[in-house]
Amino acid sequence: MSLTPSTSSASPPSARDAASPAVETRALRRTFRVSARGRKDAPAELEALGAVDLRIERGEIFGLLGPNGAGKTTCIKILTTLLLPTSGEARVAGFDVVRDAAEVRRRISLVTGGESSGYGILTVRECLWMFSQFYGVPNREAWARVDRLIDVVGLRERQHSRINRLSTGERQRMNFARGFVSEPDVLFLDEPTLGMDVNAARELRAFVARWVREGAGACAPRRRTVLLTTHYMAEAEELCDRVAIVDRGRMLACDSPPALRRRVQGGQHVELEVLAPDGASLDPAAIAGVPAAWGAPHPERGTRTLKFRLPDGSPLVEVLRRLEQTGARVDGVSTRETTLEDVFIAIVGRALDDPGARTGERA
Amino acid sequence: MSTAPVGATLPGVAGEPRWRRDLALNLRATVARAYVRVIGSLREPTWVMLDAVFPNVGMCAFVLLYRALGAPREFEAVAVLGGILSTYWLNVLWGMGAQLFWEKQQGQLQLYFVAPCSRMAILTGMAIGGALMTTVRSIVGIALGLWVFHIHVAPVGLAELLGIFALTMIALYTVGMTLASLFLFFGREAWHLCNACTEPVYFLSGMYFPIRALGALGVAAAALIPLGLGVDAMRQALLGPGAHALLPLRLEVAALAAFGLLFFALARVALERLETLSKREGKLTQRSG
Fold first, then answer.
1. Residues 121-180, chain A: which have Cβ within 8 Å of B?
2. Which of A133, A183, A198 to mutate to test the interface with B (most CBs of B within 10 A)?
């Protein structure tokens, strides 16, 4: 079986394809009208994406990392021609997403985590074949691809099962395979492993990396590119060549994961498991004396994790003393290597899984 | 999970004329979408009861009523033909009109909007699949008419009959293609619209009685509904003078052809408007809660 990247179903490369990056945006902005029920002072417009400049080269796996509401999905919707930008410019494979939407669509595919594509009455094979036809893949090639992808996502034994008889996880794997059946030049993965079990997610990530690698030897327009949105730090760290950290419609940083980590190196990354007094609302930054954030709570122990980077020379005992003054108790202390999550906290000022990340409130 | 590679090479498409590439793409999309409908009718036999047997219950009631009243035999034939065509109208409303709304609720509509094929190709596939599926189901009505009620028909000729049937189907299903966008626009109200378009349209189309019985105003209204013209043209083609026709057959055929063209164009415009609105507002392709 050939590892050579194929031509897309209906998109012979042009000079424009060859010379252009996979994705390029200039001052891309999108606002939404919001209803202000009963609130006269509420803004009439919400800025989901604010003047974003982005350049993704062919052959890259690029990650957009940010909390819900950061603008990741809005960005993907514009790039996949589902949404018009309010202003600015966006090009995919050298084609303008507004003026040349049809050309863009020939070269892309979109997989959204948790989606339920396909008709319950169809089998897995039939469903994947159907979507391949929407991209004009000739029948013989379509069935061959379907068979290969069914193996990749581990649905060989379920290939003749109706979709409405698949488990949620199986259906998600089928949706994932659907994204590859048209052999796109640029693949958009919007939270693709959302809700998947750990093993399935890991294997699908490995497949994405391999799929892009297989295309690396091709001529420039045929190099495969992936734009991934996720709020799983480990996913971005494992998979992406470069990561952009976005929050509230702004791109705050963009670099390779190692380069981003270098920005916050020095000092110690500390995690304290804190049992706060009942009803107490503690300001993590005030306690740590540096940018800090609450991690996910541990309901079984009634504790929360306080995450921060302690600069060189700053004694941990000082933080512990401040915590003690609030009446909180420290149940555990650990230190570790810098991760993308630390970078995120340092840049954004809160953790990705911080509930306040959605609303702008600080925990 | 296997590690089988997925990078096989496709047949080259460079140098292929664009119109040919687009035509092949849209034909494939049409066939694929029609396939869902056809295979669906084979896999869910309960639909046969719901869509073929139940609609014919009304038809049977009318036939028995005409028989009890001693009405001319052609009245029974009029009711049988109306009953058969009513299954198509139900399919147009529920299988075409409400379909895009349903696709949106399934989260599938945005995948259609991202795909390079024309959305009209997908709608055409739905229409062809729906018409084929309903034709299989309408066999129940035909069987009832011919073997249970012993309806006598005198077709004008097989080619003419098939031609008129095809034109009727085109006119009906292009109405469905137009309704698909409109119903999507109206969201949840689509279900009410489907209900609202059932009985009144049956009445105005003279589904179970000779359409002339509606009087001048009713006849004028019926002439504006493709289903009314289609029913009448089919009756003329099968029953001849016994059809108590609304308009001359040639005129009805021309009107059906015009309706087909008009509603196809309207469906296209409605879909383009819908897509533009969707891209501007960012809401129509999202599931509503």
1. 121-122, 126, 129-131, 133-138, 141, 144-145, 148-149, 151-154, 156, 162, 180
2. A133
Phi/psi at A202 (5° precision): -65, -45
Question: Does the pLDDT of residue A178 top 90, yes or no?
Answer: yes
- What's the complex ipTM? 0.84
Domain that holds residue A165: 15-35+42-257
Q: Are residues A251 and A282 in the same domain?
A: no
pTM for the predicted model, two decimal places: 0.82
Q: Which of A185, A335, A174, A195 is nearest to A269 (CA)?
A: A335
Task: List C-alpha distances in Å: B51 to B102, B109, B114, B134, B149.
Answer: 18, 25, 33, 8, 20
Q: pLDDT tens for residues B87-110?
A: 888 888 888 888 888 888 888 888
Predicted confidence (pLDDT) per residue in A104-135, tens digit: 999 999 998 877 778 889 999 999 999 999 99
Residue ending a domain, among A257, A274, A303, is A257
Residues of A in contact with B32 (CB under 8 A): 129-130, 133-134
| A7 domain residue, yes or no | no
| A273-to-A307, A326, B91 alpha-carbon distances in Å | 9, 15, 61
From chain B, pick out residues whose CB is under 8 angstroms from the CB of A85. none
Is A126 found in the same domain as A88? yes
Torsion of the alpha carbons at B160, B166, B168 and B171, rounded to the nearest 10: -140
Structural domains counted in chain A: 2
The answer to whether position A5 is within a domain reads no
Contacts of A183 in chain B (CB under 8 A): 6-7, 10
Task: Give me the pLDDT at residue B267, please.
Answer: 93
Task: Output the CA torsion sign for A312, A316, A319, A325.
Answer: negative
A200 and A288, same domain (yes or no): no
In this structure, the answer to whether residues A218 and A316 fall within a common structural domain is: no
- A191 and A302 co-located in one domain: no
- Cα gap B160→B166, rounded to integer Å: 10
Give the end of a domain, one of A257, A273, A302.
Answer: A257
For the stretch B119-172, pLDDT in tens is 999 999 999 999 998 887 788 778 878 888 888 888 778 888 899 999 999 999
**Does one domain contain both A217 and A271?**
no
